[in-house]
Structures are given as structure tokens and as C-alpha cells.
Amino acid sequence: MAAPEATIVAKAIERALTSRRPRARYAVGNEALSVALGRRLLPDRWALRLIGRHFGV
């Protein structure tokens, strides 16, 4: 999993700052949507375990 490009992150920040009703979270990057979907569909324990394994924690 690679970090998204700086320009993509900057556009998301700009969108959040200029929005009349900014969201609490913005999915940025190719894998962000799949992570958000996994967090929604999987039980918390499973999702946190997968995230921990990915980061070696």
C-alpha cells in the first residue's frame, strides 16, 4: 500500500476547506475506499487485526 500523491491529498484538503458542509472523513487514494468498505462490513476486531498486520503492529 503506497501513500497517495501529494496533489490528490491537496485536492481533498481544498475540497474539505471550501465545502459548506465538510465531511468528517475523506477517502484519498486508490485503496482508501476499499479500506473504508472493509471497516464497514467487517467486525471491528477483524478490521483492526488486518490493519495491524498491514502495518506490522
Write up this protein.
The protein has helices at 6-18, 32-41, 44-55. It contains 3 helices and no strands. The two termini are 15 Å apart. By secondary structure, the protein is mainly alpha-helical. The protein has a domain at 27-57.
Our estimate of the beta-strand percent is under 5%
Identify the overall geometry: globular
Estimated radius of gyration? 13 Å
Give the topology string: H per helix, E per strand: HHH
Q: Residue-averaged pLDDT, rounded?
A: 86
Largest sheet: none
Spans where pLDDT lies below 50 across 5 or more residues: none
Helix proportion range = 55-70%
Structural class: mainly alpha
Number of strands: 0
> How many alpha or pi helices?
3
How far apart, in Å, are the first and last alpha carbons?
15 Å
Quick recap:
By secondary structure, this protein is an all-alpha fold. 61% of the residues lie in helices and 0% in strands.
Kindly list the characteristics that best describe this protein.
57 residues; mainly alpha
Write the layout of secondary structure elements.
Layout: H1 6-18, H2 32-41, H3 44-55
